[in-house]
Each structure stands twice: as structure tokens, then as C-alpha cells.
């Protein structure tokens, strides 16, 4: 009985790892649609977001069933609680990738990004996908050292986000208000995507240690 129960917990963790892969792919495609003004790719990301939502619903249903039927305690309980929170973060990551794709679609056939910030967004996309992949690795291995490294890796995204604001605040910004609004919102989407990746990894630290990062005394 216990063996079957732990197989269910492993299945739940595996479903979260699959969600990580889905949102990493979504953000990779969304970034390409943004940089290349690729309408077909943007539409693909937008259409595939429902699959991420469906996976979250399945994860939540599975986790709640485990709570109701198995009454887990200690580490097992932490796994279920962490899964509920992680599924929410991962769904939000899918939504953020979709927001990027919708911006590309809205401005098509015109490019969204001025040449001045294209390199910054290419790097933001790379960091975002990297962090989602790292979160997947943490879920599969429960390696809390990787989870803690992600806190530092997220600093790269924060630095890129700050750089965008320095560009936007320059009096010489020549691209007008609409472009400034697009760049501001897009920067926020990438920054939040990275934050959610780190949040997922923190939940795995909670599973292993019983404490959230930063809560250690």
C-alpha cells in the first residue's frame, strides 16, 4: 500500500517536471516570435497555453486526492503542499509566455522591439528558459544546492530588467510612448517568469528541509 502511495507522489512530481518543460518551451517560442515578428509561432504559443492550464488542473486534482485519501504527514505532506503551490506558479509562467506571444501578435507585422533593446530581450529569454529548465532539474532530483544556486542565477534577470529601465529613462529614447509601454510590460513578464521559476525551486527546498529558503534560524 505504501509503495503504491509513494509511486503516486513520484507521479505528481513527474507531472510538475513536465509542466516545467512545457513552460520552458513556451517561453523559448514566445521569445523567438518576439524577436523575429513570427506570427505563426506566436499563435502556436497562445494556442498551446490551454495544455498548461489542463496540466495544472490535473496536478491539483491529484494532490487534493492524496490529501483527502492518504492523510500524508511530514515529508509526504510537504510534497503535496509544495506541488499545489508549484503548479500555480507554473501555470502563471505559461500565462506570462502567452503574454509575450500576444504582444508579438498585436504588433504584427511590425516588430515590437526597437533594435536598441533586442539584444537585452534575447538574453532575458535565454535566462528565463534556463531557469525553467533548472527548476525542472530540481523537481526531478530534489537537489537543494541547485535550487539555492538559482537564487544567484536570477540576479542576471534582475540586472537585465534594471538595464531596460535605464534605457527607457534616457532622455534620448527616440521610439515613442507605445514602444516604451511595450518594453516595460515585456520586461516585467520576463522578470516575473524568472521569479516564479525560483519560487518552484524554493518549494523543493521546503520539501527536503522543512523550511523555506530565508526562513532558517
UniProtKB/TrEMBL annotation:
Its main location: cytoplasm. InterPro entries: PhoU, PhoU-like_sf, PhoU_dom. It is found in: Cytoplasm. Belongs to the PhoU family. Pfam families: PhoU. One of its GO terms (cellular component) is cytoplasm. Plays a role in the regulation of phosphate uptake. GO terms for biological process: intracellular phosphate ion homeostasis; negative regulation of phosphate metabolic process; phosphate ion transport. PANTHER family: PHOSPHATE-SPECIFIC TRANSPORT SYSTEM ACCESSORY PROTEIN PHOU. This is Phosphate-specific transport system accessory protein PhoU. Keywords: Cytoplasm, Phosphate transport, Transport. It comes from the Bacteria. Homodimer. Residues 18-103, 122-203 form the PhoU domain.
Amino acid at each position: 500500500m505504501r509503495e503504491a502511495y509513494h509511486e503516486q507522489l513520484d507521479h505528481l512530481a513527474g507531472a510538475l517536471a513536465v509542466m516545467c518543460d512545457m513552460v520552458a518551451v513556451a517561453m523559448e517560442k514566445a521569445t523567438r516570435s518576439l524577436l523575429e515578428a513570427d506570427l505563426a509561432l506566436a499563435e502556436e504559443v497562445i494556442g498551446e497555453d490551454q495544455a498548461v492550464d489542463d496540466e495544472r488542473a490535473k496536478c491539483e486534482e491529484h494532490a487534493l486526492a492524496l490529501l483527502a485519501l492518504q492523510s500524508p504527514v511530514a515529508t509526504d505532506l510537504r510534497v503535496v503542499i509544495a506541488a499545489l503551490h508549484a503548479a500555480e506558479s507554473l501555470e502563471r509562467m505559461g500565462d506570462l509566455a502567452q503574454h509575450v506571444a500576444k504582444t508579438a501578435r498585436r504588433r504584427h507585422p511590425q516588430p515590437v522591439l526597437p533594435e536598441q533593446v533586442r539584444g537585452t530581450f534575447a538574453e532575458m529569454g535565454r535566462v528565463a528558459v534556463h531557469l525553467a529548465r533548472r527548476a525542472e532539474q530540481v523537481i526531478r532530483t530534489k537537489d537543494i544546492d541547485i535550487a539555492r544556486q538559482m537564487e544567484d542565477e536570477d540576479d542576471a534577470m534582475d540586472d537585465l530588467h534594471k538595464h531596460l529601465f535605464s534605457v527607457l529613462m534616457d532622455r534620448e529614447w527616440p521610439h515613442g510612448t507605445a514602444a516604451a509601454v511595450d518594453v516595460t510590460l515585456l520586461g516585467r513578464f520576463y522578470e516575473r517568469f524568472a521569479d516564479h521559476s525560483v519560487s518552484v525551486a524554493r518549494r523543493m527546498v521546503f520539501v527536503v528541509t522543512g523550511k523555506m529558503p530565508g526562513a532558517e534560524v
